[in-house]
Structure formats: C-alpha cells, structure tokens
Amino acid sequence: MFEAHAADQIPYIEQLAGYWGELCGSETLASEWADRLLTITRLALSADKSTRRYFHGPSACLSALFTAGRYDELIELVQTDILWSYKRWAVKTLAAQGRGAEAIAYARCRSPWASDMDIDGLCERILLASGQPEEAYARYAISANRAATFLGWFRAVAKKYPNKPPGVVLADLVHHTPGEEGKWFAAANDAKLFDEAIALANATPCDPKTLTRAARDFAQTNPAFAVEAGLAALRWLVHGYGYEITSVDVRAAYSHTLTAAAHAGVDGAVRTRIRALRRSGRLQRIRRQRYREGSGPGLTRSHRRERIAGARPFWPTQSLGRIRKDFLPLIR
Fold first, then answer.
1. CA angle, 202 then 238 then 311, to 5°
2. Hey, where are the domains in the chain?
3. Residues 6+ apart with CB under 8 A from 170
4. What is the dihedral of CA 130, 134, 135, 141, to 10 degrees?
5. H helix or E strand, kind and range, residue 54
6. What is the block-wise mean pLDDT of the chain (332 residues), using blocks of 10 residues?
7. What does each C-alpha distance from 320 to 241, 287, 291 come to in angstroms?
8. Eight-class DSSP state of 26
9. Residue 312, pLDDT score
10. Which of 3, 118, 214, 268 has its CA 20 to 30 A from that of 9?
C-alpha cells in the first residue's frame, strides 16, 4: 500500500497517508512505521533548504507518531515547517495531551496556503471534545460547517448543535451572510420556521422555483404559508429573477398560488395582489430603461448615487418582457 501511495502521481490516494497510523491497527506497528520513515521525514521537513527534499510520506510518519503516542517527537518534527497539513498534527497532539487552549492558539497562527475551514473545524472539534459547546458554537460553528448549499450549511450546524434552537441557528447564519437573506428560505422552510421563511424570501432575491415548490407542497397543509411563498415566487419572476425560467415555471407559480388561496379562502384578495405585481413589474422596467439613460424620476435615490459614482447596481438577467408576456394572460 505504501508503494502504491509512492507511485500515485495524479494523486488519487494522497489522503491515505493521513490515516496511516489508524491503518497500522496498533501502537506497536505504528511505532515501527514511524521509525522506518522518521529519518527521511526529518530531511523532508528540514529548515535547511540544501538538505530538504520532496518525500511523499511525511503525513504517514506524523500519523504513525501520533497513533504510537510519541507526541514530543511529533511536535519537534513539525516546528520548523509552515505547511498546515503538517502543523495540524501538532495541534492534534497538543489536544491529545489535554492542552486544548495551547492547541487552539497554535492553530490560530495560520500558515500560508492553509484552509480556514479545516483550521476552524479542528478547533471546533477540540472545544466540543473538551465539553465547551457554547464556545465552540460562538467561535467556529458557522465558519467550520460551510457546505455547498445554504440548506446543507444550516443542517450541518443544527445537527452538530442539537441543543441550539433552529431559529437561533438560522438567525446567526443569516446575520453572517448579509444581503443573501433570500437564499436561506429553504433552510427556514426545512426547519418549519414558516414566518421567518417568508420574511427571508421577501428580503432579497430567492429562487422562484424553490418558492413555487413550497407553494405546491403546502397548499393544503399550510395554505397561508403557501400563498405567501407563491406570491413571492411571482414577485421575483415579474422582476426577472430566476435561472432558465420558462412559461411553464410562470404558470406553475400562478396555479399553485391560486390553489393555496382557494384552500385559505382568500382567492379574491390574492388575485388583487397578483395584479399589483403586474404594475410593479411595469415600474421596474421603466426604472431599468431610465437607469440606462442615466436620468429621470424612474431612478431611485440610491440608483442615482450609484450612477453618479460610476457604480453598476445589480439588475436581474432575465428578460422582463418575456416574463410579462407569459404572466399577463394569466391575470387578465
């Protein structure tokens, strides 16, 4: 296996070295591997550039030293190196010795090319293992659990801190990402925080398709929420937001909104609000045109300031004309 790791040029199994101590299965075998790799690892991590050479196995050596409990040798070995992939073993060693505060302080001396998420995640685990969940949450929960989606991010934090109310977790995440409130709609919906979900969806642009699915799914069980979600979807559609929007998406948002309105007994009021969305879409188109011209009462005060300063505010990329063409026949 070690020979395969050495021959791995792509690399496909590069991370295998970080688990070498565990693969040994015992402290005795781990210590034997540490002795086998120690000399060449010292040269690979040497501060003397004339003797320093590339070696594929420093992580394997450090992992073996850690598993064998040879902590002092491990710390001494990485003191001269600046790469986080090696220094993280010193952090783990200090934590294993019960020196959690020193470990975190050592980790916070961030080295070049280090992953902030990896560093924060390790510090978070140290605090959780030492029985300090409140400090772990306050310092590292948000930064250490970032995921590919906002919903995944919320779930990762909420799962790791079950004693934290979902509303508190959501509020902290929203506060951490100003200007992206709408992207937290799915997370709020997932946590059954319906009032918060609608407030977020109306705060900043939110994916109309996500809102339409919410209107569809809750049309019968929570029609009041479904109505507001559907109206928010129509609002962002009218203003041109969304990815690869077609007439099918517009009609789906409209029909699911009216279905929810029928279940809630507010069909007439909802139709009135939809007509108001049509007028707001027309005003948005006028403002866009006057922004391009650089003047006129259609510009808001903030847009005028941005125009004078030479800044370019964000405008939706969808064609308002095309969206209105799909939307208008539904509300006549």
1. 75
2. 1-81, 205-332
3. 154, 184, 187, 188, 191, 193, 196
4. 100
5. none
6. 88 92 96 95 88 90 96 91 88 95 89 84 96 96 96 97 97 97 97 98 96 97 97 92 90 96 95 86 55 49 44 42 56 55
7. 9, 12, 15
8. S
9. 37
10. 118
Q: Identify residue 201 by its one-letter amino acid code.
A: A
- Phi, psi for 53 (deg, rounded to 5): -135, 160
Q: Which residue type does 170 have? A: L
Phi, psi of 7 (to 5 degrees): -85, -5
- 154 touches 191 (CB < 8 A): yes
Q: What does the block give as tokens for 326?
A: 């799909």
Taking the C-alpha atoms of residue 152 and residue 144, their distance in angstroms, rounded to an integer, is 13
Q: Nearest to residue 106, comparing CAs of 125, 85, 87?
A: 87
Q: In three state form, how does the secondary structure of 178-216 look?
A: CCCHHHHHHHHHHCCCHHHHHHHHHHCCCCHHHHHHHHH
How is residue 210 written in tokens?
Answer: 């996500």
User: Cα–Cα distances in Å, from 36 out to 18, 45, 268?
Assistant: 16, 16, 80
Spatial separation of the C-alpha atoms in residues 259 and 257, rounded to whole Å: 5
**What are the CA-CA distances from residue 121 to residues 65, 92, 142, 266, 322 (Å)?**
22, 12, 10, 48, 46
Tokens of 9: 């040029």
Length of the chain: 332
